[in-house]
Specification:
Shape: globular
Largest sheet: 8 strands, mixed
Helix content: 25-40%
Order of helices and strands: HHHEEEHEHHEHEHHEHEH
Number of strands: 8
Distance between the termini: 42 Å
Strand content: 15-25%
Structural class: alpha/beta
Strand order of the largest sheet: 1-2-4-3-5-6-7-8
Number of helices: 11
């Protein structure tokens, strides 16, 4: 179906502003859109508690935010935000989303504010995120009742990181990840898939913009095929946790998201593949801006809650 009307109107407003597209900007200029989008989104719902911590060592520090829902949490969900490894943070674009997720899933949500490229190129985001994930696993009994499932989730570049976390945890034997939620994830470095070149998909995210993100995150094109950068290229996807892969219809990343779901399924991993019809890339994070974000959050929460129920029955 065609792009839904609210997204069309939003894109028309962006075009009328006269601002250059991301791929014609510098990272500093592109990051200036964060406060604007945060203002449009507004403050999220109340949660029982919010705690900010700093992790890291001599190599550099980063922040995590722990959002706890009312009542006893039924899971711990570690969320890695999108933004092409260059944009985005846990203060502006993702606090609202995390609050909604915490309440909808009755889970403690931990946001990881991994350091960004180009100041901190690959593999900094991966190393920071694994440090954050490990910290969560080590403190899981403080975040939810003992034995509660540990879930990783993320959108776009954050979906890439969440997928890489499952591969790294499997290969290192820790921590145990019980479920993964990948929202229009970056899983490969191929710019020539049909969804990448389709004219109708050159919207909030375009082929040129993805090239721009990759050039800042990992300039060495040959290194982009490493599974820590392109998890679709992993030698095997066997032994990974069950997954929800949620793609957007009008998105350059659509086909690689579908390909990742197929790779998981071929490897014997239980996977649900969902498509947001009429939606473009970035809609999921635009809570209170695009109506599709609310629908997307509710769908993700439905899958997470169903998994948690199954997990409890099998415990």
């Amino acid at each position: 179906m065609s792009l839904e009307p609210a997204s069309q109107a939003f894109l028309a407003e962006l075009a009328a502003s006269g601002d250059p597209p991301i791929h014609e900007s510098t990272p500093a200029v592109a990051r200036m859109s964060g406060p604007i989008l945060a203002g449009l989104s507004g403050r999220g719902p109340e949660v029982a508690s919010v705690r900010n911590l700093k992790l890291g060592g001599a190599g550099g520090a980063f922040r995590v935010r722990v959002l706890r829902p009312e009542g006893e949490p039924q899971a711990v969900l570690v969320y890695f935000h999108g933004g092409g490894w260059v944009l985005g943070d846990i203060d502006l674009q993702y606090d609202h989303l995390a609050r909604k997720l915490a309440n909808l899933t009755r889970s403690t949500v931990v946001l990881v504010n991994y350091r960004k490229a180009p100041e901190h190129p690959f593999p900094t985001a991966i190393e920071d995120s694994f440090t954050g994930l490990t910290w969560v696993a080590e403190h899981s009994d403080e975040l939810a009742p003992p034995g509660a499932p540990l879930i990783v989730a993320g959108d776009s570049a954050g979906g890439n990181i969440a997928a890489v976390m499952t591969l790294r945890a499997r290969d290192r034997g820790r921590p145990r990840i019980d479920y993964q939620v990948l929202v229009y994830p970056v899983t490969d470095c191929d710019f020539d898939r049909p969804s990448y070149v389709a004219p109708e998909n050159q919207l909030m995210l375009s082929r040129d913009t993805m090239r721009w993100f990759w050039d800042h995150y990992l300039p060495d094109e040959r290194a982009r095929t490493h599974p820590d950068a392109s998890p679709l290229r992993a030698g095997t996807h066997a032994g990974l946790p069950p997954a929800l892969v949620y793609v957007a219809e009008h998105d350059p990343l659509h086909d690689e998201g579908v390909a990742y779901a197929e790779a998981l399924r071929t490897a014997g991993v239980p996977v649900d593949l969902e498509e947001a019809e009429g939606q473009m890339h970035a809609y999921f994070q635009m809570v209170s801006i695009l109506p599709g974000a609310e629908t997307g959050l509710e769908l993700v929460a439905k899958h997470v809650n169903e998994f948690i129920a199954r997990f409890g029955e099998s415990a």
